[in-house]
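Subject: sequence -> structure tokens, single chain

Hey, anyone have a minute? Need the predicted structure for the following. Not urgent.
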Amino acid sequence: MPVPSPATIAELRETLRAIEGDGHRRRETLPFGVADMDSRLADGGLRLDGLHEVAAKGADMCDDSAATLFMAGIAARAWGPILWVVRRRDLFAPGLYQAGLSPERVLYAEARDDAEVLALMEEGLRHRGLGAVIGEVKRAAMPATRRLQLAAEGGRTIALLLRRHAREDADPLALPSAALTRWRIASAPSVPLRCGSMGRPRWAVSLVRQRGGDPFDTLLEACDDTGRLALPAALGDRSRAPGRASPRTNAAA
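Reply:
Had a minute. Here:
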């Protein structure tokens, strides 16, 4: 039996996306704007009516900041106000701003524990008036993530769940989840500019799991002030190009 060509597979995916759900409405997505990533995502981007999980590769502050800013960049490109539910007051607003997320768009809610974080997220998703709902937890069981996914379905509010490290040696993504995509983010060395100063930050981005598609790993330049990622520029060539944003440094979250 002949193997279908990539073009045939892409056409089939487009047809399935068009008839998904109620058979009439196509799911809205938020593309990254980086062809190398969007072409490898089953939906051509992140589905707005779904839950997406992010975790830092390590428990150190560098990886944690990279994961936080990765989510901030996604939220920055979403429509409308953003609800960010936290357990501790450690978000650095200027860092979020440099990742494209303006302070006036963000509504902060402080929760006592993981259960309250998840409950507030679910309430925000059902409101339908928010562009994104973000929460940070150490533990979330499958039933809790399924509730978040169900609350997001049918709307345009993307759900982003940051899985923090419960222990330094634990994998936050080890437990099963109903999330449509699961990401692992790590900081990576930047390339110094010719003048000797630090280049644009880079992240090692791993899509650990996605519904209807394959995992992949890629190296990207961190979010610019519009929330956009970029493929690493060639050494000595920092000019703008399609899918490549202007080289700016980012403050840590």
